[in-house]
From TrEMBL:
Phylogenetic lineage: Bacteria, Pseudomonadati, Pseudomonadota, Betaproteobacteria, Burkholderiales
Source species: Collimonas pratensis
Domain of life: Bacteria
Entry-linked InterPro entries: DMSO2_SphG, Luciferase-like_dom, Luciferase-like_sf, SsuD_RutA_monooxygenase
GO molecular function: monooxygenase activity
Full protein name: Dimethyl sulfone monooxygenase SfnG
Domain (Luciferase-like) ranges: 8-326
Length: 366
């Protein structure tokens, strides 16, 4: 278990409809005023990171989408400590453009930008914008080259690279990012190809929600592979958090979200998501085994089961930490008010439990 405190991130609602495919009332908005205030509340309430989303179009929910790099910059400008992770899709973005954009944002914001390289799962979106759709594992081969190119541009002068997807000739980026050696590189995706990529090049591996046992299996696999490659990678897990004063209240909210799920939209999302994990050669990865109820939250966030009283939620977070999780990526029904509730009622309990565990470990070591 890491000696560091577990970190918290939240999904930036820069797309409409919140983070559940349900008609339930959500006091969450995708506009910039709501998001600036949310980012400020999040940093005041102990959140370390915010993650913006990339989506060019949507056939279900998420009808409106703000572009994440521009949005990330706006949130960084409105905050002082929070790190904001901008999602980027290889294909529409090239590494040269991304490296330049992010280096400038890093310079303008005192070194607080990070990037999430996502490999794409939504074929309809690529078709709509006239981008070629690569088959599953090819998408990860391209993402890996993208990450290698980003690192090369950010850390060396006269960068030369001969890949199958990208080429660089003696390229020197000036100025480089403020953060050394470079802004943190996250990746989304959990198939075999995604894990192998993380074990070679990513700083962080983000995966869909899952049980503690399911997460442990991924963590063990990825850490063993990374060690064999002389690389180290941290792990972030998605969770839709419903913390309420009583467990009954929290469970009732979950039941209501699912009761009001929009079946046509959930099925459309489930169909599109078959281009992800299920399309991988091994048939694993994100959404490969998701039920209708799981799909109501875009990234299987109910499965992590951070649903209950503050103490129950805190105990489950610490259980995740004990199997090697470094960060919980959270989503909420009513973001602003629930981020505050989390900071006030859940986070102090997490820190207490972490201290207790550290003291126990120390006592055992003596
Ligand atoms: C935490 C997280 C965030 C993601 N963010 C985005 C995003 O903003 N846009 C997007 O198109 N895909 C996003 N993805 C999808 C992944 O990039 C990937 O395409 C998907 O998880 C399928 O991966 P797999 O087939 O390797 O399991 C995200 C995935 C995760 C786990």
């Amino acid at each position: 278990m890491s000696q560091e405190t577990i970190k918290f991130a939240y999904w930036v609602p820069n797309v409409s409809g919140g983070l559940v495919v349900s008609k339930i009332t959500q006091r969450t908005s995708w506009d910039i005023d709501y998001n600036r205030k949310l980012a400020q509340l999040a940093e005041q309430n102990g959140f370390d990171y915010a993650l913006s989303q990339i989506r060019f179009t949507a056939g279900y929910g998420a009808e409106f989408q703000h572009e994440p790099v521009a949005f990330t910059h706006a949130l960084l400008a409105a905050t002082t400590k929070l790190k904001v992770i901008a999602a980027i899709l290889p294909g529409p973005w090239t590494p040269a453009v991304a490296a330049k954009q992010l280096a400038t944002i890093d310079q303008l914001t005192g070194g607080r930008v990070a990037v999430n390289i996502v490999s794409g799962w939504f074929k309809g979106e690529f078709t709509a914008i006239g981008e070629p759709w690569l088959e599953h594992d090819e998408r990860y081969r391209r993402s890996e080259e993208f990450i290698r190119a980003l690192k090369g541009i950010w850390t060396t002068d006269n960068f030369t690279f001969r890949g199958d997807f990208y080429r660089f000739n003696n390229y020197t980026l000036k100025p480089k990012p403020l953060q050394q050696p470079h802004p943190e590189i996250f990746q989304g995706g959990s198939s075999r190809a995604a894990r192998d990529m993380a074990s070679r090049v990513s700083d962080w591996y983000f995966t869909n929600g899952n049980t503690v046992a399911g997460i442990k299996a991924q963590v063990d696999d990825i850490r063993a592979k990374a060690a064999a490659n002389g690389h180290s990678v941290k792990v972030g897990v998605n969770a839709f958090i419903i913390a309420r004063d009583t467990e009954a209240e929290a469970r009732a909210v979950l039941a209501e979200i699912i009761a009001q799920a929009d079946p046509a939209a959930v099925h459309a999302f489930g169909d599109a998501a078959r281009q992800a994990g299920q399309a991988s050669p091994e048939g694993e990865g994100n959404w490969a085994k998701s039920s209708f109820e799981d799909l109501v939250q875009y990234n299987d966030g109910f499965k992590t089961d951070l649903i209950g009283t503050p103490r129950q939620v805190a105990e489950r977070i610490v259980a995740l930490k004990q199997v090697g999780v470094d960060l919980v990526l959270s989503a909420f029904l009513h973001f602003q008010e629930e981020v505050e509730y989390f900071g006030r009622h859940v986070l102090p309990l997490v820190r207490e439990l972490e201290d207790e565990l550290a003291a126990q470990a120390e006592a055992l070591a003596v």
